[in-house]
Design brief:
Strand order of the largest sheet of chain A: 1-2
Largest interface: A-B, 54 and 73 residues
Oligomer: heterodimer
Strand order of the largest sheet of chain B: 6-7-8-3-9-10
Order of helices and strands of chain A: HHHEEHHHHHH
Distance between the termini of chain B: 47 Å
Shape of chain A: flat
Helix content of chain A: 55-70%
Strand content of chain A: under 5%
Distance between the termini of chain A: 43 Å
Radius of gyration of chain A: 24 Å
Number of strands of chain A: 2
């Protein structure tokens, strides 16, 4: 990811791009909360099944889908592997070596974990790929009524991140050009990090001055150039999330696999 | 299409009565006993030596100087009929650095930002956004990413954002100082267009007088100690004060800075490139097939528009970035032994060997500062190559004198003025006495005094047998020093000898 990508607005033609980011936040939270209440394979696979269908409308091509969700897949497999080898043992043991104990119980927990991480992680990533930071800030301030000073300050700061990446590269080259890049890697890194901090504070205060000069932080009540709406599209997405959560929990309860908070 | 004349807010006057400001923690006043009146609708060019308090005044007028914890004020400063800090919103300010003025990620949103803060109704905001973008000639889609704008476009965007607030007073604080020549013209023309249709009062700070000459009807020169040195119609002020202003560092038409006489002698080859292609860390080659030769006592100027790869070439020659293809061969820099176990490619040399052979000076001096004091900064190179204190001082002291940094040895490099920072960054590269110097925009944004000093100093280095590579937009620098000019464009490059001139 190059520096400019962090700042480039997100845009696309599909309907999902027009859905308010706050609704995406809500949908992700609803599914996530429903699925962390129990660790069983039924609820997770029901949710994942519904989600798989919906991913077709997520505004991502197969390649981009694979690329963006790769971390989730890796995390899911690693988590599942850990549970498989070290998870709570129950039932017949298939392989036992020191702390490693693969049993019927740990296999089932492992599968449930794999599906669960995917069922929570994939929609979160997929929904947020289509979120533009500016739209999110609008939503947080206008729909959720978070303080606009805080939200817009953070948004302005985000824009500086790309510049920090450039600064860091220059600082690195500059140290070689000053003759001090041969030794003391750790100390040099600390010095460079401090230099970046100084540069960022200076940039930040310049940006603050520019924002202030344009009336930011005055006592006038702010208006909003972009209306952040929470209308039928948003309610549809939230409803879908509620339905998926309900179906997952319902199926799990019905088949008797529901184990509230990991079967405590 | 005419822009917002009928809705524009009334132009505002400015009045200072014995006004002054002292930054918190400073013993000296940045500005004091200023008495001044600017009538509504006047277009004023504000001049003065660096340190005369021009920026302080303009920041105060914009109401962004801060409250009591930032400093102490004296006297009275009025914009219209109100105290300056309260006039915020009716006053528009465009600053020097294009990168730190962009607030939002999309062009339209960024222009709308000021209007939102002033509580302008939504429909009215978008009407103003369209008008303002039109007024500054920025014909881009509203959703265009601001990160993809050039420096000149960013400054015009900042101007549009300010115009959308319908200011009665427009303040420009060196809006073109960080721009390449095309960017300067873009911004100047945009301001000219705006002034045609607006009655707003204008105050512009700039040390290149010729840029704004045709657009202003009054010049005010601030005195360094406080108060006003000269005030009147542009021609009169320059006739009376032109020479004094030029001496204090202002670029005044008809008073060009002195140029050195060079004794041009060709020396041995220091570095050459063979079929060199250059690229940023990721991405396609910016230029390829570069065949350059840099000799002792010779100056190569690398010119061309932004994005053509000038800085990248400088870094590649300087042994800091890898070549995308081809070779950089610097046998001539290997010294008496003529050998380095790591070969003749500067990229492969150890950092401490590199500084004794090639000195690189970056465009932004702040990137190169690694110490808390000027003295410490100069000692870094000496220590890196293992000089004893006596030898280090023998090298550093003349540099301090020559570059007028002697009184600043205890100062923090970050607190220096722009000219001082530039001189310090050149001095740090020279402590290790490299035969080849690679400078990126050495004269960028400098006042005419620093310009003349730097150029004279570089000419001395050249005449004493150093090689110089200068990446630059500065035509006058090229004229004054270059033996060869490498002109790069987005399409390719060509080399031209400047010796005949």
């Amino acid at each position: 990811m190059s520096a400019a990508d962090i700042l480039t607005p997100v845009a696309g033609r599909q309907a999902i791009y027009r859905v308010n980011p706050v609704a995406k936040l809500a949908a992700t939270a609803i599914i996530g909360i429903a699925l962390v209440l129990s660790i069983d394979w039924v609820s997770a696979s029901v949710a994942l099944g519904f989600e798989a269908v919906l991913f077709l409308f997520a505004g991502l091509g197969p390649r981009r889908f694979a690329l963006r969700t790769l971390p989730v897949w890796i995390a899911a497999v690693l988590a599942a592997l850990t549970i498989l080898l070290y998870g709570r043992a129950s039932g017949a043991s298939h392989f036992h070596f020191l702390l490693v104990n693969v049993t019927d119980g740990s296999i089932e927990l492992s599968v449930a974990t794999l599906l669960r991480v995917l069922a929570i992680g994939l929609p979160a990533v997929v929904l947020f790929v289509t979120v533009d930071p500016t739209d999110l800030a609008d939503g947080l301030a206008q729909v959720l009524r978070l303080p606009s000073r805080f939200v817009l300050g953070a948004l302005g700061g985000l824009r500086l991140v790309g510049l920090f990446v450039e600064d860091w590269k220059s600082l690195e080259l500059a140290r070689r050009a000053r003759g001090i890049a041969d030794r003391g890697r750790l100390r040099r890194f600390a010095g460079q990090a401090f230099a970046l901090l100084v540069l960022s504070i200076r940039r930040g205060s310049k940006l603050a001055t520019a924002m202030e000069a344009r009336g930011f932080g005055s006592s006038i009540r702010r208006s909003w150039a972009r209306e952040s709406r929470f209308a039928w599209r948003e309610w549809v997405l939230v409803l879908i999330a509620v339905l998926i959560a309900a179906a997952a929990v319902g199926a799990s309860l019905f088949t008797g696999h529901w184990n509230f908070l990991a079967g405590a | 299409m005419p822009t917002h004349p009928e809705h524009a807010s009334a132009p505002l006057s400015v009045a200072a009565r014995a006004w002054g400001w002292r930054h918190a923690g400073r013993a000296d006043w940045a500005l004091r006993s200023l008495d001044l009146r600017i009538e509504p609708g006047e277009r004023v060019l504000l001049l003065g030596a660096s340190g005369a308090g021009k920026s302080t005044l303009v920041h105060a007028l914009a109401g962004v100087l801060g409250g009591d914890e930032e400093g102490e004020s004296a006297g009275e400063l009025l914009v219209g009929n109100t105290d300056a800090p309260g006039a915020r919103g009716g006053v528009g300010l465009v600053l020097q650095d294009p990168d730190s003025q962009v607030v939002l990620a999309r062009v339209g949103d960024d222009v709308a930002f000021g209007c939102e803060n002033m509580g302008v109704p939504r429909a009215e905001i978008w009407r103003r956004v369209a008008e303002s973008l039109d007024a500054v000639g920025l014909n881009l889609p509203l959703a265009h990413p601001t990160s993809r704008l050039s420096g000149g476009q960013k400054q015009r965007l900042a101007l549009a954002g300010v115009l959308a607030m319908r200011p009665g007073l427009l303040l420009l604080d060196e809006p073109t100082a960080n721009l390449d020549p095309e960017g300067v013209i873009e911004v100047r023309d945009a301001v000219a267009r705006v002034l045609e249709s607006s009655r707003s009062t204008l105050v512009v700070i700039e040390h290149r007088v010729d840029v704004w000459w045709d657009l202003v009807d009054r010049v005010i020169v601030l005195a360094p100690g406080g108060g006003v040195l000269a005030d009147g119609r542009p021609h009169e002020v320059l006739r009376r004060e032109g020479a004094a202003l030029a001496a204090s560092g202002v670029w005044v038409p008809g008073h060009p800075p002195a140029r050195p006489n060079r004794t041009r002698r060709a020396g041995a080859e220091l570095l050459r490139t063979e079929d060199l292609a250059i690229a940023r860390s990721t991405g396609a080659a910016l230029q390829s097939g570069l065949e350059l030769e840099i000799g002792a006592g010779r100056c190569l100027a690398i010119t061309g528009p932004n994005g053509a790869g000038k800085s990248t070439l400088g870094l590649t020659i300087g042994g800091l970035l890898p070549a995308a293809a081809g070779r950089v061969i610097a046998d001539g820099l290997l010294g008496s032994s003529g050998r380095d176990v790591r070969g003749s490619d500067p990229l492969r040399w150890k950092s401490r060997d590199l500084v004794t052979r090639i000195g690189s000076v970056f465009q932004d001096p702040e990137h190169q500062f690694v110490s808390g004091t000027v003295a410490g900064e100069l000692a870094v190179g000496a220590r890196a190559i293992g000089l004893d204190d006596a030898e280090a001082n023998r090298r550093i002291d003349p540099l301090l004198d020559r570059l007028r940094l002697g009184h600043l040895t205890a100062a923090n490099p970050f607190t220096l003025s722009g000219g001082e920072k530039r001189r310090l960054s050149v001095a740090t590269a020279l402590v290790t006495r490299p035969p080849l110097l690679v400078l990126d925009e050495p004269t960028f944004g400098q006042d005419s005094r620093t310009w003349a000093e730097l150029v004279a100093f570089l000419a001395e280095l050249l005449d004493s047998g150093s090689g110089v590579v200068a990446v630059t937009h500065d035509v006058e620098l090229v004229d004054a020093l270059a033996d060869t000019e490498l002109r790069m464009s987005l399409a390719g490059h060509q080399t031209e000898s400047r010796l005949s001139r």
